[in-house]
Design a protein that fits this description.
Elements (H helix, E strand, L loop, with lengths): L6 E4 H18 L3 E5 L2 E6 L2 H29 L4 H12 L1
Parallel strand pairs: 1-2
Antiparallel strand pairs: 2-3
Length: 92
């Protein structure tokens, strides 16, 4: 993702200009903050940006899963029944 200047539009203004905003984002590859009382609430971004973000999240999930599997290989795991007993002891 490259760094872009993001325009800001109030939510109330966005209601009136939604078709234009969506076209600017979809076809002009712009990013737009929607604001309420001058506070950024959400952003409208091109789908490609969302797909990149999702790919990054997926890669992080895979990395964490691999680390968890490695820890299980090195330290072993605890049977579910044993974990339930341990949790019950903690909560009592």
């Amino acid at each position: 993702m490259t760094s872009h200047h993001m325009a800001s539009v109030s939510v109330s203004q966005a209601r009136h200009d939604m078709k234009h905003l969506v076209n600017s984002v979809a076809y002009g590859k712009k990013r737009i903050y929607l604001t309420s009382h001058d506070k950024r609430m959400v952003a409208i971004v091109p789908i490609e940006d969302v797909e990149v973000l999702e790919a990054m999240e997926d890669a992080e999930d895979i990395r964490e899963a691999k680390l968890a599997l490695k820890e299980i290989e090195e330290k072993g795991s605890i049977p579910f029944a044993e974990m339930k007993k341990r949790l019950r002891k903690r909560s009592s």
